[in-house]
Design brief:
Length: 345
């Protein structure tokens, strides 16, 4: 039988026959075992190795490495720029894509736009037909000129009254420094109010608004389309522009083409200019039409300078914040038609 023995306190302690390590029988010495080195974290070793390779490559080909680094930097900037733009666009979509019920005029489908030509400056509401009630440029100072502005306003009200699906926009910014910070659009709305909306107040007043930033005829059209989107949540199915009859070709063939709006959904309602200004107006129109043929988006040369001159108060233009789907159209500057996609194409 196997017995267990216990040892007292006086018993000799256990000991190892050989000390830890490898015992060399020939020399009679103990070889101490090597402690395993703590290996560096692998990614660190990888980056150090990569750094050494890049440094070696730099010594051999410094110019080539510089060009490679520059190219990579440019690619990164482009990617970041595109990503930032998409993020901003998504933010705009999130901001404005809030459902049809959130837009105050969501039921309207057609746009009637009256392009402004002057600022009403009189403190009296009973002199809208008088030239001294308006701020007129030298080429506008002709008898009967003020009456033509009122004709435009009346025509816009009448067209809107006949179309229950139409939203009326008076378009024009604060274009005259000496007239003060008053917009053409607000001037036209005030005249319509003074005239009792030409007997159609109950029908039209509640759906007549303003676009107060346009500085030329192209912006009258483009900005009004964006303003319509802000108010209704959609883009117009049909557009009717009201202005002088001699400007029909400019709007119908140049501006409409520039924004790519379908010809079958676009119409122009023209009224006559004053007889005393007719000849000069036709000559001036021929010149402006030539300029827009060469610069359809009014973003270069004389058209751009004229536009900047019509912004004496340096107003910040809010568009295209309200119409993010056509942001590219606002940024485009070229002689060929805008190549991007459009909601109404």
């Amino acid at each position: 039988m196997k017995k267990n023995y216990s040892f007292g306190s006086g018993s000799p302690k256990s000991f190892q026959a050989y000390s830890r390590g490898d015992f060399d029988l020939e020399s009679g010495t103990v070889k101490r075992s090597r402690k395993a080195k703590k290996s560096a974290f692998y990614p660190v070793k990888m980056f150090k190795s990569l750094g050494k390779r890049i440094h070696s490559y730099y010594k051999l080909h410094p110019a080539r490495l510089f060009m490679i680094s520059l190219s990579i930097g440019i690619i990164i900037l482009i990617v970041l720029s595109v990503s930032e733009r998409r993020f901003r666009m998504m933010g705009n979509y999130a901001k404005f894509d809030v459902g049809v019920d959130a837009y105050p005029f969501s039921k309207f489908r057609n746009l009637v736009m009256v392009a402004g030509h002057s600022v009403y400056t009189s403190s009296s509401c009973e002199k809208v037909d008088k030239e001294d009630s308006w701020f007129l440029e030298s080429y506008q100072k002709h008898p009967g000129q003020a009456a033509t502005f009122v004709d435009h306003i009346r025509k816009g009200v009448e067209i809107t009254a006949d179309d229950d699906d139409a939203l009326l926009l008076f378009s024009g910014g604060e274009t005259r420094k000496d007239a003060g910070p008053r917009s053409e659009a607000q001037s036209y709305w005030t005249v319509a109010e003074t005239k009792g909306w030409f007997g159609k107040q109950e029908n039209v007043r509640g759906r007549a608004l303003t676009e107060e930033h346009a500085r030329d005829s192209f912006e009258n059209l483009l900005f009004s389309v964006c303003r319509f989107r802000e108010l209704t949540g959609t883009y117009p199915h049909n557009i009717t522009v009201v202005g002088y009859d001699f400007k029909e070709k400019r709007f119908k063939h140049l501006h409409r083409t520039a924004i790519g709006f379908p010809e079958t959904s676009f119409s122009y309602s023209g009224t006559s200019s004053s007889q005393t200004s007719r000849d000069a107006a036709l000559k001036g129109e021929a010149l402006v039409r030539t300029q827009f043929k060469e610069d359809p988006y009014g973003c270069k040369g004389s058209l751009r300078r004229k536009k900047l001159g019509r912004d004496p108060f340096h107003r910040s233009i809010p568009y295209p914040n309200g119409c993010p789907e056509i942001e590219g159209l606002f940024r485009y500057c070229g002689t060929a038609p805008y190549p991007g996609s459009l909601p109404w194409a």
